[in-house]
Amino acid sequence: MATPLSDSSLSPLSAQSPFKTIAVVGLGTMGTGIAEVLARAGREVVGIDISEAAGARAVAALEAATERAVTRGRITEQERGDALARFRTFTDLQAAADADLVIEVVPESYEIKQQVFRELDAVVRPEAVLATGTNALSVTRLAAESARPERVLGLHFFNPAPAMKLVEVVSSVLTAPQAVAAVTDLALDLGKEPVAVGDRPGFVADGLLFGYLNQAAAMYEAKYASREDIDAAMRLGCGLPMGPLALLDLIGVDTARTVLEAMYAASHDRLHAPAPILRQLSEAGLTGRKSGRGFYSYEAPGSATVVRDALTPLDGAATVPGRTVRSVGVAGSGTMASGIAEVFAKAGYEVVLAARSEEKAQAAKARIGKSLSRSVDKGRMTAEAAAETLDRITPAGTYDAFADVDLALEAVAEDLEVKRQLFATFDKVCKPGAILATTTSSLPVVACARATSRPQDVIGMHFFNPAPAMKLVEVVRTVLTADDVHATVRELCAKVRKHPVDCGDRAGFIVNALLFPYLNNAIKMVQEHYATLDDIDAAMKLGGGYPMGPFELLDVVGLDVSLAIEKVLHREFRDPGLAPAPLLEHLVAAGCLGRKTGRGFREYAKR
Protein backbone atom coordinates (compact mmCIF):
# COMPACT_ATOMS: atom_id res chain seq x y z
CA MET A 1 0.00 0.00 0.00
CA ALA A 2 1.31 3.44 -0.88
CA THR A 3 2.39 5.64 1.99
CA PRO A 4 1.33 9.31 2.20
CA LEU A 5 3.76 11.84 0.82
CA SER A 6 5.93 13.52 3.39
CA ASP A 7 6.86 17.17 3.27
CA SER A 8 10.48 16.28 2.60
CA SER A 9 9.55 14.15 -0.42
CA LEU A 10 7.98 17.22 -1.97
CA SER A 11 11.04 19.45 -1.78
CA PRO A 12 11.62 19.45 -5.56
CA LEU A 13 8.08 20.73 -5.98
CA SER A 14 8.22 23.63 -3.59
CA ALA A 15 7.61 27.23 -4.60
CA GLN A 16 11.38 27.84 -4.42
CA SER A 17 12.15 24.87 -6.65
CA PRO A 18 9.32 24.25 -9.11
CA PHE A 19 9.34 21.63 -11.85
CA LYS A 20 12.48 22.42 -13.79
CA THR A 21 12.88 19.43 -16.08
CA ILE A 22 9.74 18.02 -17.64
CA ALA A 23 9.49 15.02 -19.94
CA VAL A 24 6.73 14.82 -22.56
CA VAL A 25 6.09 11.28 -23.79
CA GLY A 26 4.38 11.17 -27.18
CA LEU A 27 5.19 13.88 -29.71
CA GLY A 28 2.01 14.00 -31.74
CA THR A 29 0.09 17.24 -32.17
CA MET A 30 -0.81 17.55 -28.49
CA GLY A 31 2.57 16.45 -27.12
CA THR A 32 4.37 18.86 -29.43
CA GLY A 33 2.09 21.69 -28.37
CA ILE A 34 2.67 20.99 -24.67
CA ALA A 35 6.43 20.82 -25.25
CA GLU A 36 6.30 24.24 -26.93
CA VAL A 37 4.39 25.75 -23.99
CA LEU A 38 6.90 24.35 -21.50
CA ALA A 39 10.03 25.31 -23.45
CA ARG A 40 8.85 28.86 -24.00
CA ALA A 41 8.06 29.13 -20.28
CA GLY A 42 11.67 28.36 -19.34
CA ARG A 43 11.45 24.65 -18.53
CA GLU A 44 13.97 22.06 -19.70
CA VAL A 45 11.89 19.77 -21.91
CA VAL A 46 12.71 16.18 -22.74
CA GLY A 47 10.58 15.05 -25.68
CA ILE A 48 10.25 11.30 -26.04
CA ASP A 49 8.68 9.35 -28.90
CA ILE A 50 9.46 5.91 -30.30
CA SER A 51 9.50 7.51 -33.75
CA GLU A 52 12.55 9.55 -34.68
CA ALA A 53 10.43 11.18 -37.40
CA ALA A 54 7.93 12.36 -34.76
CA GLY A 55 10.78 13.90 -32.77
CA ALA A 56 12.07 15.66 -35.88
CA ARG A 57 8.59 16.99 -36.66
CA ALA A 58 8.26 18.28 -33.10
CA VAL A 59 11.57 20.16 -33.36
CA ALA A 60 10.53 21.59 -36.73
CA ALA A 61 7.15 22.64 -35.30
CA LEU A 62 8.82 24.43 -32.38
CA GLU A 63 11.25 26.15 -34.76
CA ALA A 64 8.37 27.34 -36.95
CA ALA A 65 6.20 28.46 -34.02
CA THR A 66 8.99 30.44 -32.37
CA GLU A 67 9.96 31.99 -35.70
CA ARG A 68 6.38 33.23 -36.10
CA ALA A 69 6.48 34.58 -32.55
CA VAL A 70 9.65 36.55 -33.35
CA THR A 71 8.11 37.90 -36.56
CA ARG A 72 5.06 39.08 -34.62
CA GLY A 73 7.19 40.70 -31.95
CA ARG A 74 6.07 38.40 -29.15
CA ILE A 75 9.56 37.13 -28.29
CA THR A 76 13.09 38.16 -29.15
CA GLU A 77 15.54 36.17 -31.27
CA GLN A 78 17.51 35.48 -28.08
CA GLU A 79 14.41 34.09 -26.35
CA ARG A 80 13.72 31.94 -29.41
CA GLY A 81 17.23 30.50 -29.30
CA ASP A 82 16.94 29.79 -25.58
CA ALA A 83 13.59 28.00 -26.03
CA LEU A 84 14.97 25.82 -28.83
CA ALA A 85 18.03 24.96 -26.72
CA ARG A 86 15.78 23.79 -23.89
CA PHE A 87 14.01 21.20 -26.06
CA ARG A 88 15.73 17.86 -26.70
CA THR A 89 14.19 14.73 -28.23
CA PHE A 90 14.85 11.04 -27.58
CA THR A 91 13.38 7.67 -28.54
CA ASP A 92 13.98 5.93 -25.20
CA LEU A 93 12.01 6.45 -21.97
CA GLN A 94 15.31 6.26 -20.08
CA ALA A 95 15.69 9.93 -21.08
CA ALA A 96 13.03 10.76 -18.44
CA ALA A 97 15.28 9.62 -15.59
CA ASP A 98 16.01 13.11 -14.28
CA ALA A 99 12.58 14.63 -14.93
CA ASP A 100 10.67 16.26 -12.07
CA LEU A 101 7.41 15.76 -13.99
CA VAL A 102 6.50 13.39 -16.80
CA ILE A 103 3.46 14.11 -18.99
CA GLU A 104 2.39 11.24 -21.22
CA VAL A 105 0.34 12.04 -24.32
CA VAL A 106 0.39 8.68 -26.08
CA PRO A 107 -2.66 7.19 -27.89
CA GLU A 108 -5.90 6.73 -25.91
CA SER A 109 -5.39 3.07 -25.03
CA TYR A 110 -5.15 1.54 -21.56
CA GLU A 111 -2.63 -1.01 -22.84
CA ILE A 112 -0.31 1.61 -24.31
CA LYS A 113 -0.58 4.02 -21.37
CA GLN A 114 -0.14 1.26 -18.78
CA GLN A 115 2.97 0.04 -20.58
CA VAL A 116 4.39 3.58 -20.49
CA PHE A 117 3.64 3.93 -16.76
CA ARG A 118 5.19 0.55 -15.96
CA GLU A 119 8.38 1.50 -17.78
CA LEU A 120 8.45 4.94 -16.16
CA ASP A 121 8.20 3.35 -12.70
CA ALA A 122 11.56 1.71 -13.36
CA VAL A 123 13.13 4.89 -14.73
CA VAL A 124 12.05 8.04 -12.87
CA ARG A 125 13.09 9.24 -9.45
CA PRO A 126 10.69 8.34 -6.56
CA GLU A 127 9.60 11.95 -6.09
CA ALA A 128 8.79 12.59 -9.77
CA VAL A 129 5.15 13.26 -10.60
CA LEU A 130 3.56 11.27 -13.43
CA ALA A 131 0.74 12.93 -15.36
CA THR A 132 -1.51 11.44 -17.99
CA GLY A 133 -2.93 13.63 -20.73
CA THR A 134 -5.94 11.37 -21.24
CA ASN A 135 -9.36 12.90 -21.82
CA ALA A 136 -11.27 9.62 -21.84
CA LEU A 137 -9.60 6.95 -19.71
CA SER A 138 -9.68 6.45 -15.96
CA VAL A 139 -6.84 8.21 -14.16
CA THR A 140 -7.58 6.03 -11.13
CA ARG A 141 -7.10 2.83 -13.14
CA LEU A 142 -3.81 4.07 -14.52
CA ALA A 143 -2.65 5.20 -11.08
CA ALA A 144 -3.63 1.94 -9.38
CA GLU A 145 -1.18 -0.01 -11.53
CA SER A 146 1.67 2.41 -10.87
CA ALA A 147 4.27 1.72 -8.21
CA ARG A 148 3.56 5.21 -6.80
CA PRO A 149 -0.16 5.92 -7.32
CA GLU A 150 -0.04 8.96 -5.02
CA ARG A 151 2.21 10.65 -7.59
CA VAL A 152 -0.12 10.00 -10.57
CA LEU A 153 -2.71 12.50 -11.78
CA GLY A 154 -4.31 13.82 -14.93
CA LEU A 155 -3.12 16.94 -16.73
CA HIS A 156 -5.49 17.56 -19.61
CA PHE A 157 -4.42 20.30 -22.01
CA PHE A 158 -6.64 21.40 -24.89
CA ASN A 159 -5.71 21.57 -28.55
CA PRO A 160 -3.89 23.67 -29.68
CA ALA A 161 -2.04 23.69 -26.38
CA PRO A 162 -0.12 26.95 -26.96
CA ALA A 163 -3.36 28.87 -27.59
CA MET A 164 -5.93 27.21 -25.32
CA LYS A 165 -5.97 28.52 -21.75
CA LEU A 166 -7.75 25.67 -19.99
CA VAL A 167 -5.96 22.86 -18.20
CA GLU A 168 -7.96 20.28 -16.25
CA VAL A 169 -6.03 18.96 -13.24
CA VAL A 170 -7.52 15.54 -12.50
CA SER A 171 -6.98 13.81 -9.19
CA SER A 172 -7.96 10.26 -8.31
CA VAL A 173 -8.78 9.03 -4.81
CA LEU A 174 -5.14 7.97 -4.64
CA THR A 175 -3.52 11.27 -5.62
CA ALA A 176 -1.61 13.23 -2.99
CA PRO A 177 -2.95 16.79 -2.53
CA GLN A 178 0.63 18.11 -2.64
CA ALA A 179 1.10 16.73 -6.14
CA VAL A 180 -2.15 18.36 -7.26
CA ALA A 181 -1.08 21.68 -5.75
CA ALA A 182 2.34 21.53 -7.42
CA VAL A 183 0.91 20.79 -10.87
CA THR A 184 -1.74 23.48 -10.41
CA ASP A 185 1.00 26.01 -9.63
CA LEU A 186 2.82 24.90 -12.77
CA ALA A 187 -0.29 25.48 -14.90
CA LEU A 188 -0.65 28.98 -13.47
CA ASP A 189 3.03 29.66 -14.12
CA LEU A 190 2.47 28.62 -17.76
CA GLY A 191 -0.25 31.25 -18.07
CA LYS A 192 -3.02 28.66 -18.10
CA GLU A 193 -6.31 28.52 -16.19
CA PRO A 194 -6.31 25.29 -14.16
CA VAL A 195 -9.59 23.68 -13.13
CA ALA A 196 -9.46 20.97 -10.47
CA VAL A 197 -11.75 18.01 -11.19
CA GLY A 198 -12.28 14.44 -10.09
CA ASP A 199 -11.78 11.34 -12.17
CA ARG A 200 -14.66 10.60 -14.53
CA PRO A 201 -14.61 10.10 -18.32
CA GLY A 202 -14.45 13.36 -20.22
CA PHE A 203 -13.91 15.37 -17.01
CA VAL A 204 -15.77 18.72 -17.30
CA ALA A 205 -15.19 20.17 -20.75
CA ASP A 206 -15.15 16.98 -22.80
CA GLY A 207 -17.80 15.43 -20.57
CA LEU A 208 -20.18 18.15 -21.72
CA LEU A 209 -18.76 18.69 -25.20
CA PHE A 210 -18.77 15.10 -26.44
CA GLY A 211 -22.37 14.43 -25.48
CA TYR A 212 -23.34 17.44 -27.59
CA LEU A 213 -21.14 16.31 -30.48
CA ASN A 214 -22.65 12.83 -30.32
CA GLN A 215 -26.19 14.19 -30.53
CA ALA A 216 -25.23 16.32 -33.52
CA ALA A 217 -23.82 13.25 -35.28
CA ALA A 218 -27.04 11.34 -34.52
CA MET A 219 -29.13 14.26 -35.81
CA TYR A 220 -27.19 14.24 -39.08
CA GLU A 221 -27.37 10.44 -39.34
CA ALA A 222 -31.16 10.63 -38.99
CA LYS A 223 -31.19 13.00 -42.00
CA TYR A 224 -33.03 15.59 -39.91
CA ALA A 225 -30.79 18.36 -41.23
CA SER A 226 -27.78 18.69 -43.50
CA ARG A 227 -24.27 18.83 -42.09
CA GLU A 228 -23.96 22.45 -43.32
CA ASP A 229 -27.22 23.49 -41.64
CA ILE A 230 -26.38 21.76 -38.35
CA ASP A 231 -22.99 23.46 -38.22
CA ALA A 232 -24.33 26.88 -39.29
CA ALA A 233 -27.15 26.66 -36.74
CA MET A 234 -24.79 26.13 -33.81
CA ARG A 235 -22.29 28.75 -34.97
CA LEU A 236 -24.87 31.45 -35.65
CA GLY A 237 -27.43 30.48 -33.01
CA CYS A 238 -24.99 29.95 -30.13
CA GLY A 239 -21.92 31.94 -31.18
CA LEU A 240 -19.69 28.86 -31.27
CA PRO A 241 -16.40 29.06 -33.16
CA MET A 242 -17.10 25.81 -35.04
CA GLY A 243 -20.10 23.66 -35.83
CA PRO A 244 -20.22 20.22 -34.15
CA LEU A 245 -19.60 18.12 -37.26
CA ALA A 246 -16.65 20.25 -38.37
CA LEU A 247 -15.32 19.98 -34.81
CA LEU A 248 -15.65 16.18 -34.87
CA ASP A 249 -13.56 16.18 -38.03
CA LEU A 250 -10.95 18.35 -36.32
CA ILE A 251 -10.82 16.21 -33.15
CA GLY A 252 -10.88 12.96 -35.10
CA VAL A 253 -13.98 10.81 -35.48
CA ASP A 254 -12.11 7.82 -34.05
CA THR A 255 -10.97 9.84 -31.02
CA ALA A 256 -14.52 11.03 -30.40
CA ARG A 257 -15.78 7.47 -30.57
CA THR A 258 -13.16 6.35 -28.02
CA VAL A 259 -14.11 9.15 -25.61
CA LEU A 260 -17.83 8.41 -25.95
CA GLU A 261 -17.29 4.67 -25.42
CA ALA A 262 -15.51 5.46 -22.16
CA MET A 263 -18.21 7.90 -21.10
CA TYR A 264 -20.99 5.44 -21.88
CA ALA A 265 -19.23 2.64 -20.00
CA ALA A 266 -19.25 4.85 -16.90
CA SER A 267 -22.66 6.54 -17.24
CA HIS A 268 -24.83 4.12 -19.26
CA ASP A 269 -26.55 7.28 -20.47
CA ARG A 270 -27.91 6.84 -24.00
CA LEU A 271 -26.76 10.37 -24.82
CA HIS A 272 -23.18 9.04 -24.53
CA ALA A 273 -23.73 5.88 -26.59
CA PRO A 274 -21.71 6.63 -29.75
CA ALA A 275 -23.92 7.34 -32.77
CA PRO A 276 -23.53 4.45 -35.24
CA ILE A 277 -22.19 6.82 -37.90
CA LEU A 278 -19.10 7.40 -35.74
CA ARG A 279 -18.30 3.69 -35.87
CA GLN A 280 -19.03 3.52 -39.60
CA LEU A 281 -16.74 6.43 -40.41
CA SER A 282 -14.00 5.22 -38.05
CA GLU A 283 -13.96 1.71 -39.45
CA ALA A 284 -13.90 3.08 -43.00
CA GLY A 285 -10.84 5.16 -42.13
CA LEU A 286 -12.79 8.39 -42.61
CA THR A 287 -11.57 9.93 -39.38
CA GLY A 288 -11.78 13.60 -40.30
CA ARG A 289 -9.16 16.16 -41.27
CA LYS A 290 -6.23 13.87 -40.53
CA SER A 291 -7.41 11.35 -43.15
CA GLY A 292 -8.75 13.94 -45.58
CA ARG A 293 -12.37 12.93 -45.15
CA GLY A 294 -14.88 12.59 -42.33
CA PHE A 295 -18.22 14.36 -42.19
CA TYR A 296 -16.72 16.70 -44.79
CA SER A 297 -14.10 16.17 -47.51
CA TYR A 298 -10.78 18.02 -47.34
CA GLU A 299 -8.19 19.13 -49.85
CA ALA A 300 -5.65 16.65 -48.47
CA PRO A 301 -4.99 14.66 -45.29
CA GLY A 302 -4.25 17.17 -42.53
CA SER A 303 -5.72 20.08 -44.50
CA ALA A 304 -8.35 22.40 -43.02
CA THR A 305 -9.67 23.33 -46.48
CA VAL A 306 -13.10 21.81 -47.15
CA VAL A 307 -13.73 20.81 -50.75
CA ARG A 308 -16.96 20.05 -52.59
CA ASP A 309 -18.19 16.48 -52.53
CA ALA A 310 -21.37 14.61 -53.43
CA LEU A 311 -23.17 15.96 -50.35
CA THR A 312 -22.32 19.63 -50.88
CA PRO A 313 -25.41 21.73 -51.73
CA LEU A 314 -25.35 23.23 -55.20
CA ASP A 315 -25.02 27.03 -55.25
CA GLY A 316 -27.99 28.69 -56.89
CA ALA A 317 -29.73 25.36 -57.48
CA ALA A 318 -33.10 25.73 -59.16
CA THR A 319 -35.93 25.93 -56.65
CA VAL A 320 -39.70 26.18 -56.78
CA PRO A 321 -40.72 29.78 -57.64
CA GLY A 322 -41.71 31.68 -54.52
CA ARG A 323 -44.59 34.01 -53.75
CA THR A 324 -44.38 37.78 -53.83
CA VAL A 325 -43.96 39.43 -50.44
CA ARG A 326 -44.17 43.20 -50.17
CA SER A 327 -45.73 43.69 -46.73
CA VAL A 328 -45.34 41.84 -43.45
CA GLY A 329 -47.57 41.63 -40.40
CA VAL A 330 -45.94 40.92 -37.04
CA ALA A 331 -48.20 39.88 -34.14
CA GLY A 332 -46.98 40.62 -30.64
CA SER A 333 -45.58 43.45 -28.56
CA GLY A 334 -42.60 41.91 -26.79
CA THR A 335 -38.88 42.01 -27.49
CA MET A 336 -38.99 39.33 -30.18
CA ALA A 337 -41.95 40.87 -32.04
CA SER A 338 -40.42 44.35 -32.09
CA GLY A 339 -37.04 42.94 -33.10
CA ILE A 340 -38.52 41.04 -36.06
CA ALA A 341 -40.53 44.09 -37.12
CA GLU A 342 -37.29 46.12 -37.06
CA VAL A 343 -35.51 43.49 -39.20
CA PHE A 344 -38.17 43.58 -41.95
CA ALA A 345 -38.53 47.39 -41.87
CA LYS A 346 -34.76 47.83 -42.21
CA ALA A 347 -34.89 45.59 -45.29
CA GLY A 348 -37.47 47.86 -46.91
CA TYR A 349 -40.70 45.99 -46.18
CA GLU A 350 -43.90 47.69 -45.08
CA VAL A 351 -44.65 46.31 -41.62
CA VAL A 352 -47.88 46.18 -39.65
CA LEU A 353 -47.08 45.64 -35.97
CA ALA A 354 -50.26 44.45 -34.27
CA ALA A 355 -50.89 43.75 -30.60
CA ARG A 356 -53.87 43.20 -28.33
CA SER A 357 -54.25 46.94 -27.88
CA GLU A 358 -53.21 50.11 -29.66
CA GLU A 359 -51.19 51.15 -26.60
CA LYS A 360 -49.13 47.94 -26.64
CA ALA A 361 -48.48 48.29 -30.36
CA GLN A 362 -47.38 51.92 -29.92
CA ALA A 363 -45.08 50.90 -27.06
CA ALA A 364 -43.52 48.21 -29.26
CA LYS A 365 -42.91 50.75 -32.02
CA ALA A 366 -41.35 53.12 -29.48
CA ARG A 367 -38.99 50.31 -28.45
CA ILE A 368 -37.95 49.95 -32.09
CA GLY A 369 -37.36 53.70 -32.25
CA LYS A 370 -34.96 53.48 -29.31
CA SER A 371 -33.15 50.54 -30.93
CA LEU A 372 -32.73 52.48 -34.16
CA SER A 373 -31.45 55.51 -32.23
CA ARG A 374 -28.78 53.35 -30.63
CA SER A 375 -27.74 52.17 -34.10
CA VAL A 376 -27.45 55.81 -35.20
CA ASP A 377 -25.39 56.68 -32.10
CA LYS A 378 -23.02 53.80 -32.89
CA GLY A 379 -22.65 54.89 -36.49
CA ARG A 380 -24.34 51.80 -37.91
CA MET A 381 -26.97 53.76 -39.81
CA THR A 382 -27.81 57.36 -40.60
CA ALA A 383 -30.54 59.31 -38.82
CA GLU A 384 -32.38 59.58 -42.13
CA ALA A 385 -32.31 55.80 -42.68
CA ALA A 386 -33.54 55.26 -39.12
CA ALA A 387 -36.44 57.63 -39.64
CA GLU A 388 -37.38 55.94 -42.92
CA THR A 389 -37.26 52.53 -41.23
CA LEU A 390 -39.52 53.66 -38.41
CA ASP A 391 -41.99 55.20 -40.89
CA ARG A 392 -42.43 51.79 -42.53
CA ILE A 393 -43.88 50.38 -39.29
CA THR A 394 -47.60 50.87 -38.70
CA PRO A 395 -48.83 49.97 -35.19
CA ALA A 396 -52.31 48.47 -34.86
CA GLY A 397 -54.51 47.38 -31.97
CA THR A 398 -56.32 44.71 -33.98
CA TYR A 399 -55.27 41.82 -36.21
CA ASP A 400 -57.79 43.00 -38.78
CA ALA A 401 -54.91 45.22 -39.95
CA PHE A 402 -53.34 42.06 -41.44
CA ALA A 403 -55.97 41.91 -44.20
CA ASP A 404 -53.53 42.85 -46.97
CA VAL A 405 -50.18 41.52 -45.71
CA ASP A 406 -48.31 38.90 -47.71
CA LEU A 407 -46.71 37.35 -44.63
CA ALA A 408 -48.30 37.20 -41.16
CA LEU A 409 -45.79 36.20 -38.49
CA GLU A 410 -46.64 35.70 -34.83
CA ALA A 411 -44.27 36.28 -31.90
CA VAL A 412 -46.64 35.94 -28.96
CA ALA A 413 -46.44 33.86 -25.77
CA GLU A 414 -45.02 30.32 -26.07
CA ASP A 415 -48.42 28.76 -25.33
CA LEU A 416 -49.94 26.38 -27.85
CA GLU A 417 -53.55 27.33 -27.19
CA VAL A 418 -52.75 31.05 -27.51
CA LYS A 419 -50.97 30.40 -30.80
CA ARG A 420 -53.75 28.17 -32.14
CA GLN A 421 -56.32 30.87 -31.46
CA LEU A 422 -54.12 33.44 -33.18
CA PHE A 423 -53.73 31.25 -36.27
CA ALA A 424 -57.49 30.78 -36.41
CA THR A 425 -57.70 34.58 -36.44
CA PHE A 426 -55.06 34.80 -39.19
CA ASP A 427 -57.11 32.33 -41.21
CA LYS A 428 -60.15 34.59 -41.06
CA VAL A 429 -58.33 37.90 -41.56
CA CYS A 430 -55.47 37.26 -44.00
CA LYS A 431 -56.01 37.21 -47.76
CA PRO A 432 -55.74 33.97 -49.77
CA GLY A 433 -52.12 33.16 -50.58
CA ALA A 434 -50.67 34.95 -47.55
CA ILE A 435 -47.98 32.98 -45.73
CA LEU A 436 -48.70 32.35 -42.04
CA ALA A 437 -45.62 31.85 -39.85
CA THR A 438 -44.84 31.10 -36.22
CA THR A 439 -41.67 31.95 -34.31
CA THR A 440 -42.15 29.10 -31.82
CA SER A 441 -38.96 27.56 -30.46
CA SER A 442 -40.49 24.44 -28.95
CA LEU A 443 -44.13 23.88 -29.97
CA PRO A 444 -45.33 21.82 -32.97
CA VAL A 445 -45.78 24.02 -36.02
CA VAL A 446 -48.29 21.57 -37.48
CA ALA A 447 -50.60 22.19 -34.51
CA CYS A 448 -50.72 25.85 -35.50
CA ALA A 449 -51.29 24.86 -39.13
CA ARG A 450 -54.22 22.61 -38.26
CA ALA A 451 -55.95 25.56 -36.59
CA THR A 452 -56.37 27.03 -40.08
CA SER A 453 -58.18 25.95 -43.24
CA ARG A 454 -54.92 26.34 -45.21
CA PRO A 455 -52.19 24.33 -43.45
CA GLN A 456 -50.14 24.36 -46.67
CA ASP A 457 -49.51 28.08 -46.11
CA VAL A 458 -48.13 27.64 -42.57
CA ILE A 459 -44.41 27.43 -41.73
CA GLY A 460 -42.06 28.05 -38.81
CA MET A 461 -39.60 30.96 -38.82
CA HIS A 462 -37.64 30.69 -35.60
CA PHE A 463 -35.67 33.91 -35.11
CA PHE A 464 -33.15 34.21 -32.28
CA ASN A 465 -33.04 36.96 -29.69
CA PRO A 466 -32.09 39.77 -30.25
CA ALA A 467 -33.53 39.42 -33.76
CA PRO A 468 -31.76 42.48 -35.26
CA ALA A 469 -28.34 41.10 -34.26
CA MET A 470 -28.71 37.32 -34.56
CA LYS A 471 -28.17 36.01 -38.09
CA LEU A 472 -29.90 32.64 -37.79
CA VAL A 473 -33.45 31.68 -38.74
CA GLU A 474 -34.57 28.06 -38.41
CA VAL A 475 -37.04 27.43 -41.25
CA VAL A 476 -39.41 24.73 -40.06
CA ARG A 477 -41.65 23.08 -42.62
CA THR A 478 -44.34 20.62 -41.63
CA VAL A 479 -45.46 17.62 -43.69
CA LEU A 480 -48.23 19.89 -44.99
CA THR A 481 -46.17 22.99 -45.90
CA ALA A 482 -46.25 23.85 -49.63
CA ASP A 483 -42.96 23.92 -51.53
CA ASP A 484 -43.48 27.50 -52.72
CA VAL A 485 -44.07 28.65 -49.13
CA HIS A 486 -40.76 27.09 -48.08
CA ALA A 487 -38.97 28.64 -51.08
CA THR A 488 -40.46 32.07 -50.34
CA VAL A 489 -39.36 32.04 -46.71
CA ARG A 490 -35.79 31.04 -47.61
CA GLU A 491 -35.67 33.91 -50.14
CA LEU A 492 -37.05 36.30 -47.52
CA CYS A 493 -34.35 35.30 -45.04
CA ALA A 494 -31.67 36.19 -47.57
CA LYS A 495 -33.35 39.53 -48.32
CA VAL A 496 -33.41 40.48 -44.61
CA ARG A 497 -29.76 39.33 -44.29
CA LYS A 498 -30.41 36.25 -42.22
CA HIS A 499 -29.02 32.76 -42.69
CA PRO A 500 -31.79 30.15 -43.07
CA VAL A 501 -31.34 26.53 -42.01
CA ASP A 502 -33.92 23.89 -42.87
CA CYS A 503 -35.30 21.54 -40.26
CA GLY A 504 -38.35 19.38 -39.72
CA ASP A 505 -41.18 19.96 -37.29
CA ARG A 506 -39.93 18.30 -34.12
CA ALA A 507 -39.16 19.56 -30.64
CA GLY A 508 -36.17 21.87 -30.31
CA PHE A 509 -35.47 22.00 -34.04
CA ILE A 510 -31.67 22.12 -34.40
CA VAL A 511 -30.29 24.59 -31.86
CA ASN A 512 -32.42 23.91 -28.81
CA ALA A 513 -32.36 20.15 -29.40
CA LEU A 514 -28.55 20.24 -29.15
CA LEU A 515 -28.13 23.11 -26.69
CA PHE A 516 -30.47 22.20 -23.85
CA PRO A 517 -29.31 18.61 -23.21
CA TYR A 518 -25.80 20.09 -22.87
CA LEU A 519 -27.11 22.67 -20.38
CA ASN A 520 -29.01 19.97 -18.51
CA ASN A 521 -25.86 17.83 -18.22
CA ALA A 522 -23.97 20.82 -16.81
CA ILE A 523 -26.64 21.17 -14.11
CA LYS A 524 -26.26 17.47 -13.30
CA MET A 525 -22.50 17.97 -12.77
CA VAL A 526 -23.22 20.61 -10.13
CA GLN A 527 -26.05 18.58 -8.64
CA GLU A 528 -23.66 15.63 -8.23
CA HIS A 529 -21.01 17.92 -6.66
CA TYR A 530 -18.53 17.01 -9.38
CA ALA A 531 -17.55 20.59 -10.19
CA THR A 532 -18.53 24.14 -9.26
CA LEU A 533 -20.52 26.61 -11.35
CA ASP A 534 -17.43 28.74 -11.84
CA ASP A 535 -15.21 25.84 -12.87
CA ILE A 536 -17.77 24.52 -15.37
CA ASP A 537 -18.35 27.95 -16.89
CA ALA A 538 -14.60 28.54 -17.13
CA ALA A 539 -14.01 25.10 -18.65
CA MET A 540 -16.55 25.61 -21.44
CA LYS A 541 -15.40 29.13 -22.27
CA LEU A 542 -11.68 28.35 -22.17
CA GLY A 543 -11.73 24.75 -23.37
CA GLY A 544 -14.71 24.76 -25.72
CA GLY A 545 -14.63 28.32 -27.04
CA TYR A 546 -18.17 29.01 -25.86
CA PRO A 547 -19.03 32.73 -25.58
CA MET A 548 -20.82 32.05 -22.28
CA GLY A 549 -20.58 29.27 -19.73
CA PRO A 550 -23.68 27.08 -19.32
CA PHE A 551 -24.77 28.69 -16.05
CA GLU A 552 -24.27 32.21 -17.35
CA LEU A 553 -26.43 31.25 -20.33
CA LEU A 554 -29.12 29.55 -18.23
CA ASP A 555 -29.51 32.65 -16.08
CA VAL A 556 -29.78 34.85 -19.17
CA VAL A 557 -32.31 32.62 -20.95
CA GLY A 558 -34.35 32.17 -17.78
CA LEU A 559 -34.55 28.99 -15.75
CA ASP A 560 -38.30 28.72 -16.29
CA VAL A 561 -37.88 28.98 -20.06
CA SER A 562 -35.06 26.44 -19.95
CA LEU A 563 -37.12 24.02 -17.89
CA ALA A 564 -40.07 24.32 -20.27
CA ILE A 565 -37.87 23.52 -23.28
CA GLU A 566 -36.24 20.57 -21.51
CA LYS A 567 -39.66 19.17 -20.63
CA VAL A 568 -40.75 19.44 -24.27
CA LEU A 569 -37.59 17.63 -25.43
CA HIS A 570 -38.06 14.89 -22.83
CA ARG A 571 -41.70 14.45 -23.77
CA GLU A 572 -40.90 14.27 -27.49
CA PHE A 573 -37.91 11.92 -27.46
CA ARG A 574 -38.73 9.89 -24.30
CA ASP A 575 -35.04 9.56 -23.47
CA PRO A 576 -34.36 9.27 -19.71
CA GLY A 577 -31.13 11.24 -20.21
CA LEU A 578 -33.23 14.25 -21.29
CA ALA A 579 -35.24 14.40 -18.07
CA PRO A 580 -34.74 17.86 -16.51
CA ALA A 581 -32.24 17.88 -13.65
CA PRO A 582 -34.08 18.06 -10.30
CA LEU A 583 -31.91 21.02 -9.27
CA LEU A 584 -33.35 23.06 -12.17
CA GLU A 585 -36.90 22.14 -11.16
CA HIS A 586 -36.21 23.09 -7.53
CA LEU A 587 -34.82 26.50 -8.46
CA VAL A 588 -37.80 27.26 -10.71
CA ALA A 589 -40.21 26.16 -7.97
CA ALA A 590 -38.43 28.56 -5.59
CA GLY A 591 -38.88 31.45 -8.03
CA CYS A 592 -35.16 31.66 -8.81
CA LEU A 593 -35.48 32.21 -12.54
CA GLY A 594 -32.19 33.90 -13.40
CA ARG A 595 -31.25 37.48 -14.06
CA LYS A 596 -34.85 38.61 -14.48
CA THR A 597 -35.60 37.78 -10.83
CA GLY A 598 -32.17 38.70 -9.46
CA ARG A 599 -31.32 35.12 -8.61
CA GLY A 600 -30.88 31.89 -10.55
CA PHE A 601 -27.75 29.78 -10.34
CA ARG A 602 -26.07 33.00 -9.22
CA GLU A 603 -27.29 36.14 -7.49
CA TYR A 604 -27.43 39.47 -9.31
CA ALA A 605 -27.53 43.05 -8.14
CA LYS A 606 -31.04 44.46 -8.17
CA ARG A 607 -31.69 47.07 -10.81
UniProtKB/TrEMBL annotation:
Annotated metabolic or biological route of this protein: Lipid metabolism; butanoate metabolism
Gene3D superfamilies, A to Z: N-(1-d-carboxylethyl)-l-norvaline Dehydrogenase, domain 2, NAD(P)-binding Rossmann-like Domain
Domain spans labelled 3-hydroxyacyl-CoA dehydrogenase NAD binding: 21-199, 328-505
Alphabetical UniProt keywords: Oxidoreductase
SUPFAM superfamilies: 6-phosphogluconate dehydrogenase C-terminal domain-like (SSF48179), NAD(P)-binding Rossmann-fold domains (SSF51735)
3-hydroxyacyl-CoA dehydrogenase C-terminal domain ranges (all copies): 202-298, 508-604
PANTHER family the UniProt entry points to: 3-HYDROXYACYL-COA DEHYDROGENASE FAMILY PROTEIN (PTHR48075), 3-HYDROXYBUTYRYL-COA DEHYDROGENASE (PTHR48075:SF9)
Family: Belongs to the 3-hydroxyacyl-CoA dehydrogenase family.
Name of protein: 3-hydroxyacyl-CoA dehydrogenase family protein
